[in-house]
Amino acid sequence: MIDVSVVIPVYNEAESLPELHQRLSDVIEKNNYVAELIFVDDGSTDNSFQVLMQLHETDKRICISQLRRNYGKSAALAEGFQRATGRYVVTMDSDLQDDPAEIPHLIAKLQEGFDVVSGWKKKRYDPFIKRFTSKIFNKVTGRITGVHLNDMNCGLKIYRNEVIKMVRLYGQRHRFIPVLAAQNGFRIGELVVKHAPRKFGVTKFGPSRFLVGALDLLTLVFLSRYVKRPLHFFGGLGMMSFSLGFVVNLYLTVERIFYQKFLSNRPLLFLGVLLIIVGVQFISIGLIGEMMVESRPDVNTYKVKKVIGFEQG
Asked: What fold does the segment set 4-224 form as a domain?
């Protein structure tokens, strides 16, 4: 029985991989863990895959899944989660900013009765803009979802295996795994972890990630509450718009019939008609959404090119 599966997405981190492997090996051997190290090469364009192949030759605990192109972190984690067999599953980044020495602390925290423990990089070595937007993101996410974490997007986390088998990842939903877990009734904890400056390569953070994160949060809220009943969301908006438009037009009709007021120069007439049309459109979208829910297939959105080492486990 494997104690710990460590899932590590890799994208152009060839220089950091040998040191990361050495540090992981030290922790595993010091604590006598039965472990598997799952590296998911997310379409790297450097020689990351070749480095991982060389490491696999010296350490059969290393398992590699190579994706056909760069699908993003959510797809890489989904692939790693699908293949992880350990009782506990640790995720961490491959850039050496997450410290493998935190793994025993995460396991200890998980054993206090949690199902997910998220790392909190209390002292961060990131650019100011990344720290600032992350703080806003965490506060807004906590207020909207009810899951209050100081560092929702920390790559260093630990899960019980049943958690990762239940959550579905695609798009950029990896940021919200604790929220997805909480929505399924799992208990969420947090632990302060060490964070190190980047030694090699360049950060994958860009200005677009803040906007993408906001859109993903909106998507998550919608999916968590209305994915099985989209008509309740769109239909509710549609009925409000339609009803308001109906009241406006009824008022104008009364004025025209009983007070002989002409409507050709009344902008309110156009507003009433517009609200009715928008209401009908929202209701139609809700009905189409209901049909899509009934026929939606659950399929992976990424393609695997090659897998190595999983047969050993």
From this structure: Spore Coat Polysaccharide Biosynthesis Protein SpsA; Chain A (3.90.550)
The rounded distance, in Å, linking the Cα atoms of 162 and 156 is 18
Q: In this structure, are residues 94 and 10 in contact, taking their beta carbons and an 8 Å threshold? A: yes
Angle at the Cα of 232 from the Cα atoms of 227 and 236, rounded to 5 degrees: 135
Q: Where are the domains of the chain?
A: 4-224, 230-295
In contact, 72 and 172? CB cutoff 8 Å? yes
Torsions phi, psi of 309, nearest 5?
95, -10
- Please name the residues in contact with 302: beta carbons below 8 A apart, sequence gap of 6 or more: 67, 68, 71, 75, 78, 79
**pLDDT tens for residues 43-68?**
999 999 999 999 999 999 999 999 99
CA distances from 57 to 64, 80, 199, 300 (A): 12, 20, 25, 30
Compute CA distances 7 → 23, 73, 116, 154, 158, whole Å.
15, 11, 15, 14, 10
- Give the single-character DSSP code of 101: G
In the chain, alpha helices (H)? 17-30, 48-58, 73-83, 103-110, 128-145, 161-164, 177-183, 208-226, 230-259, 267-295
Is the separation of the CB atoms in 54 and 295 below 8 Å?
no
Q: Residue 227: its pLDDT value, please?
A: 59
One-character DSSP codes across 205-240: --THHHHHHHHHHHHHHHHHHHTT-HHHHHHHHHHH
Taking a C-beta distance cutoff of 8 angstroms, is the pair 156, 98 a contact?
Answer: yes
The answer, as to whether pTM is greater than 0.90, is no
Cβ(147)–Cβ(118) below 8 Å: no
